[in-house]
Specification:
With about 140 residues, this protein is α+β, with helices and mostly antiparallel strands. The protein has helices at about 45-50, 50-55, 75-95, 110-125, and strands at about 5-10, 20-25, 25-35, 65-70, 70-75, 100-105, 130.
Length: about 140
């Protein structure tokens, strides 16, 4: 039996709470708040307490998918990125920059959200940026 506590940062919002993931034989089994974290001081919201559950969900996508002939098919990351870049270029060329919008996530860091909106504005040329900041 192999048991580990792995320190990490919560993915549910931009607060940056720290906790330990309990790992038993390679499977996540629980969450323990980090008492020395200056952000959450050993406390967690209900989402933080249960964050380990979504990682192992059967409903979670684990590989990129592209619709081909009406069906979703698993593809490589390279193919998914090439497809996305080509579609962004096509839409921008045909309908203009403001036909493309970006929706940020509360499950990534503030820095990652900043990079996403910077990419939207500087690379694509759109101000159509939104965010789902729900705590």
């Amino acid at each position: 039996m192999d048991y580990q506590n792995i320190l990490t940062t919560c993915t549910y919002c931009g607060c940056g709470c720290n906790f330990f993931l309990e790992v038993l034989d390679g499977e996540l089994t629980g969450t323990i708040p980090c008492k020395t974290s200056p952000v959450n001081e050993g406390k967690l919201c209900i989402k933080g307490w249960n964050v380990h559950e979504f990682v192992q969900s059967d409903k979670r996508l684990k590989r990129p998918m592209i619709r081909k002939n009406g069906n979703l098919e698993e593809v490589s990351w390279d193919e998914a990125l090439d497809y996305t870049a080509a579609r962004l270029k096509t839409v921008k060329a045909e309908k203009g920059s403001d036909a493309v919008g970006f929706f940020a996530s509360a499950k990534v860091t503030c820095e990652e959200n900043y990079l996403m909106q910077k990419f939207a504005r500087a690379a694509v040329g759109t101000n159509s940026v939104d965010h789902c900041a729900r705590l």
